[in-house]
Amino acid sequence: MKENILIDLSKQFAVDMVNICTDIKENRKSNILLNQMLRSGTSIGANIHEANYASSKADFINKFQIALKECYETDYWLGLFKATYIITANEYEELYSKCSKIRKLLISSITTAKENLNA
Q1: What is the spatial distance between Cα 96 and Cα 90, in angstroms, rounded to a whole number?
Q2: What is the pLDDT, as a whole number, of residue 119?
Q3: Would you tell me how many other CB atoms lie within 10 Å of the CB of residue 9?
Q4: pLDDT at res. 4
Q5: Alpha helices in the chain, H assignment, sequence order
Q6: How far apart are CA 89 and CA 5, in angstroms?
Q7: What predicted TM-score, i.e. pTM, was given to this entire model?
């Protein structure tokens, strides 16, 4: 069940990232770091989705760990974009909250999967 929630949340987060990056590019500052945030923000969901087709439990865990790393990278870019006023504090809070929720679910899922792997 957590995986379905993760798929839904991460897909919506990816849509949010595409929308904010498009808005920044079209209406604000054209920023060379924009592609970095877009890549990490959309990679989260891609790796979660790919985990559903993993060849083994270890492969599943690996895909979730990659998604988790992408969450942490996205957190970094969001903080940098907020600090440099590329995004507003409200935009930051909304996106950071969604990213944090996905991160917590990933950590929980990875922990559970590792426990089941070793059982």
Answers
A1: 10
A2: 66
A3: 18
A4: 85
A5: 2-27, 34-51, 57-83, 89-118
A6: 26
A7: 0.89
Report pLDDT for 93. 97
Cβ count within 10 A of residue 104:
11
Residue in the structure block whose two tokens are 């498009």? 22
What is the DSSP code string of 93-106? HHHHHHHHHHHHHH
Question: Using the 8-state DSSP alphabet, how is residue 30 labeled?
Answer: -
Which residues are CB-contacts of 75 (< 8 A; sequence separation ≥ 6)?
96, 99, 100, 103
The pLDDT assigned to 58 comes to 93
CA distance 84 to 87: 8
Mean pLDDT by 10 residues, the chain (119 residues): 80 94 80 87 96 93 97 96 93 97 95 85
Tokens coding 80: 């940098």
Instruction: Kindly give, in sequence order, each residue whose CB lies less than 8 Å from that of residue 78, ignoring residues fewer than 6 positions away.
Output: 37, 87, 92, 95, 96, 99
Spacing of C-alpha 38 from chain mean position: 10
